[in-house]
Design brief:
The chain contains 10 helices and 10 strands. The relative contact order is 0.13. The termini are far apart. The protein has 2 domains: 4-152, Jelly Rolls (Sandwich), CATH 2.60.120; 157-227, Arc Repressor Mutant, subunit A (Orthogonal Bundle). By secondary structure, the protein is of the alpha+beta class. The chain has helices spanning 4-17, 22-25, 29-35, 118-127, 129-155, 158-173, 181-188, 192-204, 220-226, 230-241, and strands at residues 38-42, 47-49, 58-62, 66-72, 78-84, 104-109, 111-117, 176-177, 208-211, 214-217. A hairpin with a 5-residue loop joins β4 and β5 (78-84). The strands form 3 sheets. The protein has a 4-stranded antiparallel β-sheet. Strands 1-7-3 form a 3-stranded antiparallel β-sheet. A 3-stranded antiparallel β-sheet has the order 8-10-9.
């Protein structure tokens, strides 16, 4: 008879054979074994990384949910520089000896992840140049996203920026996003009234539907047309860099 812990272990092991995380799915089975992965729940609002903090011990590979990389400005204002979900990893910079953090990793949409200790990730990166190169590629992808977001925030309308953000969130979490307009305003670094007006316009056009604590994408085609094109440009760049 299996005890509950053994049942969970078997479930985790089965998931690891076909990981939902894109980065993990590209690894050989022996590399996954060396990482000694365990499952983790991601709770909305949970902080996984802190700027300048060297004491964290886990690297996270999200399977569901979204982790936002945000920079805190004077006065408590937050600016999102990127998102990580089932296509990436949070905390791997430390494994590449870049342990000084600028952004903090905050769970914006709860979900699940696999996690490995920093020591295990660092050891595999030292042993496997291909794995180290994969982490470096991911870091470059996050840099490209931060640069594209900066250009977008400086030049495009709030409605177009909001559509870009929703498209990126859809890539990681699907059409039903458990977010509020207050949260969206914080991620876009704008006032809530602006997000409310933009959301009302998109809802009137039949592109989204706002429910209590949820924003549901109804028409993806129209959402892409209303976006500024930054999401498409970033996806094309990342697909070239990481097929």
């Amino acid at each position: 008879m299996l005890i509950p812990g053994q049942v969970q272990y078997q479930k985790d092991t089965q998931q690891m054979k076909t990981p939902q995380n894109r980065l993990l799915a590209s690894l050989a089975p022996e590399d996954l074994q060396q990482l000694d992965l365990t499952s983790a729940d991601l709770t909305a609002g949970e902080v996984l990384e802190r700027p300048g903090y060297r004491g964290f011990e886990y690297v996270y590979f999200p399977c569901t949910g979204i982790i936002s990389l945000v920079v805190a400005l004077k006065g408590g204002r937050l600016v999102e520089t990127g998102m990580v979900g089932r296509d990436g990893v949070v905390g791997a910079n430390a494994a590449l000896d870049h342990s000084h953090l600028i952004a903090r990793g905050v769970v914006s949409i709860g979900g699940t992840a696999f996690k490995a200790t920093l020591d295990k990730v660092r050891l595999l990166a030292d042993r496997r140049p291909s794995f180290r190169a994969l982490l470096a590629q991911h870091a470059q992808m996050l840099l490209a996203e931060a640069q594209q977001s900066a250009a977008c925030n400086a030049t495009h309308t709030l409605e177009a920026r909001m559509c870009r953000w929703l498209l990126r969130s859809r890539d990681l979490a699907g059409d039903d996003l458990p977010i509020t307009q207050d949260f969206l305003a914080q991620m876009l670094s704008v006032r809530r009234v602006g997000v409310s007006l933009a959301a009302r316009a998109l809802q009137s056009a039949g592109i989204i539907r706002c429910a209590r604590g949820h924003l549901i994408i109804v028409d993806v085609k129209q959402l892409r047309e209303a976006s500024c094109g930054c999401h498409k440009a970033l996806r094309a760049h990342c697909d070239r860099m990481w097929p």
